[in-house]
Inverse folding.
C-alpha cells in the first residue's frame, strides 16, 4: 500500500496559544482582549476548531503508517526525508512556509476552518482527509507543479519563495540599489521591489497593480486603466515572474524607468545593493526569514530550479 516512509504533518500555533504565550495565562489573555473591547470567544472558537481538525487528521491516518507532527517554528531545523509525504493543516501561509524546505516531496494541504480561511493553495477539507491520505499514500493523487522564485546572492546564499520576494530596506526608509534588466542598468531609490510568482500574482502583485491603476484613473479619468485591475493573474506553473518597484523616487542620482516587467530565463533580473546596512531580502511575507542585502551584495532573481508539488483534486 505504502509508497512513502512517513507522513509529516505541519501545524501552527493558534491565535489563542500565541496570546497565552504573550500574557502567560489564559485568564490574563481573556482579560486583555475583553478590556480592549474584543471577543475572547472568537479566539476560543477558532482554537477549538483547529484542535478538532488536528484530532480528525490524526484519526484519518491509516493504521500502521508512521507519522510525525511538527509545529512550523521548527521548520528551519527539521530535515525532511526524500520519501516523506508532507501534510499541512492551516492557511496558505503555512503551505508557502513549508514549501521552501522541500525538494520533490508532494504536499497535501488541508483547510481546518473554511469559515475563517480562504485557502487558495489549500484545496482539501477535513471531511475528505481519510480518502485523500489513502490516495496520496498509494500514489494515485493528482499533482500540480507550482513555480517558485529564487534570489541567488553572490556570497552563495539563496532564498526561495512560493508567492513573492521582497527586496529593500528592513525599515521604512528608502532602499537604494541598482537594477539591471533587459539590457539596461538604472540606479533607483524606492520602497523596495516585489517579485511575484504565478501563485502570488493574486496577492501582493494584485495590490500593486490595483493601487497604481486607481491612482492613474483618479489623476487622468480619460485614460483606460480599469482593464489593468483585472490583468494581474498568471498561471501557477508559469516559467516567469513579475517584478514591480514600489514608490520609485526620481532624483539627481535615481531614475524610475525600470519599474515593472517579466523575469524569464532569457530576461533575468539582477539587483546590486547600495545600502550600507538594514538591506534585506525576505520571502512570502515572513520578515524574520531573510538574508542580508547590504552594500556589495548582488542578487540574481530567477524562476527557481525546484517546484512545489501540490496535491490537488483529480
Amino acid at each position: 500500500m505504502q509508497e512513502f516512509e512517513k507522513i509529516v504533518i505541519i501545524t501552527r500555533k493558534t491565535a489563542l496559544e500565541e496570546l497565552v504565550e504573550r500574557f502567560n495565562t489564559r485568564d490574563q489573555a481573556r482579560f486583555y482582549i475583553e478590556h480592549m473591547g474584543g471577543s475572547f470567544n472568537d479566539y476560543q472558537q477558532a482554537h477549538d476548531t483547529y484542535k478538532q481538525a488536528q484530532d480528525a487528521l490524526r484519526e484519518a491516518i491509516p493504521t500502521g503508517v508512521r507519522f510525525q507532527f511538527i509545529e512550523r517554528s521548527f521548520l528551519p531545523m527539521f530535515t525532511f526525508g526524500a520519501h516523506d509525504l508532507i501534510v499541512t493543516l492551516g492557511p496558505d501561509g503555512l503551505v508557502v512556509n513549508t514549501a521552501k524546505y522541500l525538494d520533490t516531496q508532494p504536499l497535501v494541504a488541508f483547510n481546518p476552518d473554511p469559515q475563517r480561511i480562504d485557502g487558495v493553495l489549500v484545496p482539501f477539507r477535513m471531511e475528505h482527509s481519510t480518502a485523500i491520505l489513502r490516495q496520496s499514500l498509494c500514489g494515485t493523487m493528482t499533482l500540480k507543479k507550482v513555480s517558485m522564485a529564487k534570489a541567488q546572492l553572490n556570497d552563495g546564499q539563496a532564498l526561495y519563495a512560493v508567492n513573492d520576494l521582497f527586496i529593500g530596506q528592513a525599515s521604512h526608509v528608502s532602499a537604494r540599489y541598482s537594477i539591471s534588466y533587459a539590457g539596461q542598468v538604472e540606479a533607483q531609490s524606492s520602497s523596495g521591489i516585489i517579485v511575484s510568482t504565478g501563485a502570488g500574482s493574486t496577492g501582493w502583485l494584485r495590490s500593486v497593480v490595483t493601487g497604481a491603476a486607481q491612482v492613474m484613473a483618479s489623476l487622468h479619468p480619460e485614460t483606460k486603466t480599469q482593464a489593468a485591475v483585472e490583468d494581474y493573474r498568471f498561471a501557477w506553473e508559469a516559467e516567469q515572474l513579475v517584478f514591480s518597484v514600489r514608490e520609485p523616487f526620481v532624483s539627481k542620482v535615481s531614475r524610475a524607468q525600470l519599474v515593472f516587467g517579466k523575469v524569464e530565463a532569457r530576461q533575468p533580473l539582477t539587483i546590486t545593493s547600495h545600502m550600507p546596512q538594514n538591506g534585506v531580502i525576505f520571502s512570502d511575507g515572513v520578515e524574520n526569514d531573510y538574508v542580508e542585502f547590504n552594500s556589495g551584495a548582488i542578487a540574481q532573481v530567477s524562476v527557481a530550479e525546484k517546484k512545489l508539488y501540490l496535491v490537488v483534486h483529480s
